Amino acid sequence: MTSGLVAIVTGASSGIGRATALRLARDFGVVVLAARDQDGLDGTATAIRAEGADAMVFALDLREPASAKTIVDGTLAAHQRIDALLNIAGAVPQIDLFTMTDAQWDDGMALKFHGARRLTMRAWDALKATRGSVVFMSGAAAFDPTPGAAAVAAINAGITALAKAFAEQGIADGVQVNSVSPGTVMTDRRRAFFEKWAPAHGMSVDQAIEAFPARVGISRLGTPEDIADLMAYLVSPAAKWMTGSDVRIDGGEIKTV
Fold it and tell me: How buried is 203 (Cβ within 10 angstroms: 0-12 exposed, 13-18 middle, 19+ buried)?
């Protein structure tokens, strides 16, 4: 743990966000947690404090424009600085391109894209002051769009482009910005996917989880901790010259640089 450094993690109540927040407790004196689930956030905060870091909790909906101000202003009032922002919150429904409604598209954009955009903009001056780091969560679907995951792919591709735009400004302002594109990671959300996918393929959920890696050409499903370690690296001093990159971590599912 590095005393005094402050990181904000969104989506920190579960899954990759929770794992990332816990991993950052080794390197940051304060981890600020944001998500809608108060109980989940409280559990993450308790685990972070057990690691020896401090935790601050904001239970709110990043779809709401005022949430970004609440998080940033509250963090600065309590700790006077922001050193890292990790935009992880956001689930986009996997609904067929020809049945997904405008409202469902808008909802997918509201949290994962616009929530992250507003929070980054609101925190930008504080990040300039500390020469801090930002990471956006994209996803491997951006590189392999299908009709069944059109919104996931399109929104993730937009996030990758947004991160690069922030990175360009960050070169002038001293703020490092990257994005991460995970492949198939076993989270509660992924289990919910398998609960729908398995019956359609004549399998139980456990059979589907076991068979799926071979279907997509990987040795195993990813874990939230796999992604958390990468996120921690990207906001560490060792990665400071790395900016404007989208880092793919998918077990080799999409084989390209």
Answer: middle
